[in-house]
Amino acid sequence: MNATSMSLVRFDTNDYSVPTAYAHQPITVVGCVDEVRLVCRDHVVARHRRDWGREQALYNPIHYLALLERKPGALDHALPLESWQLPVAFGILRRRLETEWGHPGTREFIKVLRLLERASLLELHAAVKQSLEIGVTSCDAVRVLLEHRRETLVPLFCLDQRPHLGSVTVPPPDLTAYQCLRGAS
User: Fold this and answer.
1) Is-contact 48 36, C-beta < 8 A?
2) Radius of gyration of the chain from its Cα atoms, rounded to whole angstroms
3) Is residue 108 one of the residues assigned to a domain?
4) Secondary structure class of 57 (helix, strand, coil)
5) Domain residues for 121?
6) What is the spatial distance between Cα 16 and Cα 3, in angstroms, rounded to a whole number?
7) CB neighbours of residue 181 within 10 Å
8) What's the predicted TM-score (pTM) here?
9) How many whole angstroms separate alpha carbon 93 and alpha carbon 105?
10) Nearest Cα residue to 115 out of 136, 143, 86
11) Is 1 domain-assigned?
12) Nearest CA to 18 among 43, 41, 38?
């Protein structure tokens, strides 16, 4: 069956959302006891907790953020976002962006929300709180903070079990070519 223009797929009397990029695309539904997986071209594009009620519409707000980025004026009126409860820090970030940037601030806020496509709400919330604390509120700043939090430290290379490497020396690089460039300026 194809996803509707509202990016919904009907299964067992309920509608489940898929990302807006998959509207009007053929979707295969895999229904289990506790989960519904929506598959397009051999890729799982959405997962939802199965609802055993009838005539329900189950939205994942993240599925609609790409569309809202193109139409930011609909952010406050979008049905899929109606019951989405975000932490307080997101509201503060939105107010700051809209105060500083005006109408483009709403689009910038939606870009921050789109980071949820690759990060958990917990991770993004921590990055948003940190961005507010240090006073940088652009999407790029939040993304950098998010990526920085994900970095793992690389352990130092220990020579204790490698005595044969202790005598290895690396000659310093020849910087004469760069000295020529410095002299030219």
Assistant:
1) yes
2) 24
3) yes
4) strand
5) 63-150
6) 9
7) 9
8) 0.77
9) 10
10) 143
11) no
12) 38
